[in-house]
Design a protein that fits this description.
Strand order of the largest sheet: 3-4-5-6-7-8-9-10
Shape: globular
Number of domains: 1
Structural class: alpha/beta
CATH topology: TIM Barrel
CATH class: Alpha Beta
CATH superfamily: NADP-dependent oxidoreductase domain
Bound molecules: NADP nicotinamide-adenine-dinucleotide phosphate
Strand content: 15-25%
CATH architecture: Alpha-Beta Barrel
Radius of gyration: 18 Å
Helix content: 25-40%
Distance between the termini: 28 Å
Largest sheet: 8 strands, parallel
Number of helices: 10
Length: about 280
């Protein structure tokens, strides 16, 4: 596994597991809990979820899987990096604290490793940051960050005294969604903010892409693993593909060990050219 370093010095796995669309149906729950447990057995140690997913259902799937996996001895809590997100509609000073307590209960843990504002809403950022800092002081979260923030949002965040305590910005990024490369990623690097790439295989579309199919064949891996290795070619980038199928989980895990060649990278640039000008950050 490759690791990414947060600005506080902590090293976290560069490849994690997404959970959007989990926890939406009681019929699928058993299979989803099993998938998360299988992921832990395979070596996944970072998991991304949100209070929004399945209206708390995904957090509860993750919570059950964590408890069962710890009980079975396949993982211990200290090794896990649990990331969850607060909705903008709960982003007031008191709202964040209450939302975090509900998330902790569903996740069946005492502290969230990384707590993100899911996207920017009407609440002044300063108020949300004050709530994050309070939760951090109380040990209910270890670190906080944001999601779907473009460069101007990050600049505004950095204008507050506590803004630079933001560890990560989670954004839509895959070979087929490269807008953030233009000016957001350079800004992240300059300010030691880790990028968490969401939908890194473009919701499964890149697993069917001919360019990634050829790259995957050259390396003996799946197109999806090739698409993930492309995202992970950058040392300050974390990718959180979602998978429920055990075969997908296994295929994706190898991406963290895969180095693409200059020829591979040129083929991706030809198929999905890098942005030539500023475009707003895309969001799913
Ligand atoms: N912050 C935000 O606003 C935001 C927005 C979107 C997503 N996210 C986070 O990012 C995570 C990932 O994004 P995503 O779920 O939108 O998309 P994604 O990870 O790019 O793609 C997930 C889809 O690809 C399929 N898949 C996974 N591995 C595969 C493989 N090896 N071969 C073929 N298909 C494969 C999955 O199928 P199966 O499930 O059937 O295996 C699923 O349908 C989310 O789950 C969520 O945690 C955050």
């Amino acid at each position: 596994m490759r690791f990414v370093q947060w600005s506080n010095g902590q090293k976290v796995p560069a490849l994690g597991l997404g959970t959007w669309r989990m926890g939406e149906s009681p019929r699928a729950r058993k299979n989803e809990v099993k998938a998360v447990m299988q992921a832990f057995e395979m070596g996944y140690r970072l998991i991304d979820t949100a209070e929004m997913y399945g209206d708390g259902g995904a957090e509860s799937v993750v919570g059950e899987a964590i408890q069962l996996a710890i009980g079975a001895g396949s993982v211990c809590r200290e090794e896990l990096i649990v990331v969850t997100k607060v909705l903008p509609s709960h982003a007031t000073r008191d709202g964040v604290v209450r939302a975090c307590e509900r998330s902790l209960k569903r996740l069946a843990i005492d502290t969230v490793d990384l707590y993100l504002l899911h996207w920017r809403g009407a609440t002044p950022l300063k108020e949300t940051v004050a709530a994050f800092e309070q939760l951090r002081d109380q040990g209910r979260i270890q670190q906080w960050g944001v999601s779907n923030f473009d460069k101007s949002d990050m600049q505004q965040l950095w204008s507050f005294a506590e803004g630079p305590r933001c560890i990560a910005n989670q954004v839509y990024y895959s070979a087929s969604a490269r807008n953030a490369e233009f000016d957001l990623f350079p800004w992240h690097r300059e300010h030691s903010v880790v990028t968490m790439a969401y939908s890194p295989i473009d919701q499964g579309a890149l697993a069917r892409d001919a360019t990634f199919d050829s790259i995957g064949r050259r390396h003996g891996v799946s197109p999806s693993a090739a698409a993930l290795a492309w995202v992970l070619r950058q040392s300050d980038m974390l990718a959180i593909p979602k998978a429920v199928s055990a075969a997908h989980l296994r295929e994706n895990y190898v991406a963290a060990q895969l180095e693409l060649t200059a020829e591979d990278l040129a083929a991706v640039d030809a198929r999905f050219p890098p942005p030539a000008r500023k475009r707003p950050l895309a969001m799913i």
